[in-house]
Amino acid sequence: MSSSTVTYKASAMDMLRSDTRIICGLGPADFGGIERVRARLSALASAGASARVGLRVTPFSPKWQYRPDLVCEDVIAVAPIGAAQVKERLVELSRTASSEVPLRARLAGEYLLLDLSHGFSDAVLPVELFAYLGDPDPSPPLPSWATARAMRNPLPRALAGWMMHNPRKVVDVVYGRLRTAPPELVSPALAPMEVSRIPWSPSPAVAVATSRIGTPSALSAWRAENLPEVSITSMLSAAVAKSLSLSGISTSYSASFLFDCRRYLRTEGVVLGNFAVGIDFHGIDPTSPAALHGSVTHAIDKGRPLAAGALSAMRYFKTRSAIPSIRATTAPATADAEITFSDIGRIRQVENIAWSEQPDKCVFYPLSEPSLPQSIVVTSLRIRDVFHVTATFHDNFFDHDAVQAAIDLAMLDPIALLAPQELSR
């Protein structure tokens, strides 16, 4: 059977994400030139449909063609850039993305930019692609995930198993009581007010910053002495929220977090696919590490991410249609920033690629366009002993310089943003 006639049946979660994109850039590193990049992408695509990159993702049908011969149709070399130009190129890719082209790559000197259909996978795939494409080995073996058997709609099964092992929490899942965090973590919310709206269209922008070498280790040491019960993720997220406030951007008394539901799977190794689920928390102070940590751990304890992911998958089974990207056409005349936090964690896979600069001179920045004008998506990650933070927003709603100043401030000294408020509690 020729590759042009082979089809792959997409999972429910993949279909639900198939109308959005994952865009990111990494460098400076030696990628061996555009021909090596194309050859390695072709090798991955030819390994089989499980590697994902050879699929022709479409939001209109779960039957995706497997066409490894087309993987490099829009993989090109462009003019070299420096670190300062990465965010501009990410925005360009965002504004020119098309669902008809599931994979685009731009090699700009020592910086590689990827634009992927979210239907392929969540952030796990671009991380693994950068690791393989930047591997200094002249002939690296195919990564194991490229030929691993795909998992078919695992979240509903994982939810059934979780409920069996946590019978006392089943009522919370079924009746939705898990939506509320413990009272001590929630502040009274003001009644919503009517606000005027104005015409609006998306204008995605990115603010980026990299910490000094040693900042993750310093934050871990400070945590051990002062807030041992609070996660690094919650601390870093709170520092960013505080820096936004100090930079003149008021934030709502709420926060959203993306959770990786792979934590609920009984499997080892890299699992491609879409397992990221967003959960909203209302009535909490986003500048408080303790409040963020308490809400997140409460949600995990109650199985809320798994339930949300499984219910999304089951909703697709019922409707058999992808959820289109939300495209707002109006914006509130004024609104507090609604922050979504996505912490990818430490990315060990790329620590040994052929970097050409010291850690604090390197970048790995993702762009995750918010669907609403008042939203700011904050993505954080760690490579070696350095934090990288990206804030994606719309620059016709928030001032670009103010957001960039906030991200710079957060990465300059996150401990200074945490210490005064937390030690006084």
Question: Can you offer a commentary on this structure?
Answer:
By secondary structure, this protein is α+β, with helices and mostly antiparallel strands. The protein is 32% helix and 22% strand. It has twelve helices and 16 strands. It has helices at residues 12-16, 34-46, 86-96, 124-133, 154-165, 170-175, 215-226, 232-246, 289-301, 304-319, 400-412, 414-423, and strands spanning 7-9, 21-27, 55-56, 63-66, 75-78, 103-108, 111-117, 197-199, 204-210, 254-260, 276-282, 330-332, 338-346, 363-367, 375-383, 386-394. Helix 5 (154-165) packs across helix 10 (304-319).
Give the helix/strand layout:
Layout: E1 7-9, H1 12-16, E2 21-27, H2 34-46, E3 55-56, E4 63-66, E5 75-78, H3 86-96, E6 103-108, E7 111-117, H4 124-133, H5 154-165, H6 170-175, E8 197-199, E9 204-210, H7 215-226, H8 232-246, E10 254-260, E11 276-282, H9 289-301, H10 304-319, E12 330-332, E13 338-346, E14 363-367, E15 375-383, E16 386-394, H11 400-412, H12 414-423
Parallel strand pairs: 5-6, 10-13, 13-15
Antiparallel strand pairs: 1-4, 2-7, 2-14, 3-4, 6-7, 8-12, 9-16, 10-11, 15-16
